[in-house]
Amino acid sequence: MIYTVTFNPSLDYIVAVDDFQLGLTNRTSSELILPGGKGINVSTLLMNLGIESTALGFMAGFTGDEIVRELQEMGVKSDFIRIDEGISRINLKLKSIDGTEINGSGPAISADKVEQLMVQLDALGEGDVLFLAGSIPSSMPDDMYRRIMARLEGKGVMIVVDATKDLLLNVLEYHPFLIKPNNHELGDIFGVELKTREEVVPYGKKLQEMGARNVLISMAGEGAVLIAEDRQVFDKPAPKGHLVNAVGAGDSMVAGFMAGWMDKQDYEHAFCMGIASGSASAFSEYLATKSEIEAIYKQVRVED
Ligand SMILES: Nc1ncnc2c1ncn2[C@@H]1O[C@H](COP(=O)(O)OP(=O)(O)OP(=O)(O)O)[C@@H](O)[C@H]1O
Ligand SMILES: O=P(O)(O)OC[C@@]1(O)O[C@H](CO)[C@@H](O)[C@@H]1O
Fold it and tell me: Which atom of ligand 2 is nearest to the CA of 101?
C-alpha cells in the first residue's frame, strides 16, 4: 500500500492578479481553490495515474473539512486525524507573479495526536511506500520525520522525503529511498547559490554521502538532475511548454518518479516520468492527468 503524510494540509487559494501593485487594492482576474499540501498533491497525482494511495496527516476546522470533502469528491482516499483547535491553513498563491506565495503556519498538533499518527504508521510493513512531504507546523520539533523513520526502521517500508533544511537533513542517516530538494533548497543547505544543472551535482552527491539513496533535484524551468543509488547521474532540461500553474509541480515530479520506479525499477524511466509529471502539472491549471503526462513523457524520452 502507498501512504502519504501531510502534517500541514492547506486549501490553496490560487489567484491571478493583473498588474499587481504593492500598497494598493488589487483584484483577481481568476481564482481557484484546491486541496493542497505536498503529500495531498502526491496522492492526487498518483490517483490521476490510476495508483491508489491513502492520504494521512492532520486537519482542523472548516478548512480541514473542506480539504477532506474535496479529496473525497476527487476519489482520493484519506484518513486524517482531526485537531480540535484552530483551522487548517489557507495558502495564497499569486499565479501571475510566478513563485510568489504566502503559506500559513498551520494549527498546533499535540503530542497525543502525533502518537495517533504513529499508531496508524505502525501498521505499515514490507513493500509499503510512505511519502513524508511538506512543512510541519512551526510549533513542532524539526526531527518529526526522523522520529517516524526511526520508528519504522527495519520494517521494509520504502520512504520518500520531500522537506527542507533540518527536517530533511535529520532523516538522512535513516537512508530514505528518495529525497527531492529543489536547487534553491539544496543551495540553502550548503550556503551556496546553485543555478545550473552542472552546479547541483556535487551537492546532490553530498546528500547521498550523508545517507540518501536517491537524490532528485528539481530546477523548475531548468529541468532536473537525478543522482541515482547505482551511481548513475541523469540530467535533463525541462520540456518546453506554456507555464499555467506551477503549484504542485514538484510534488507531481515526486509522485511521477515513484510511479515510474514502481512500474519498471528503472532509473531512467522513473526520472523521465518525474520530469514529465512535473512539467505536465506546470503546463495545466490542475495537477496533471495521465494523458497529459504520457504526452510529455514521449517528448522527454525522444529528446535523449
Ligand atoms: N516553468 C516550467 N517549465 C517546464 N517545466 C517546469 C516548469 N516549472 C516546473 N517544471 C517541472 O516541474 C519540476 C518541479 O518543479 P520545481 O523545481 O518548481 O519544484 P518545486 O520547487 O518542488 O515546486 P513546488 O514546491 O511548487 O511543488 C521541474 O523539474 C520541471 O520538470
Ligand atoms: O508550506 P509547505 O508545506 O512547505 O508547502 C505547502 C505547499 O506550498 O506545497 C504545495 C505545493 O508543493 C501546495 O499545495 C502547498 O500550499
Answer: 8
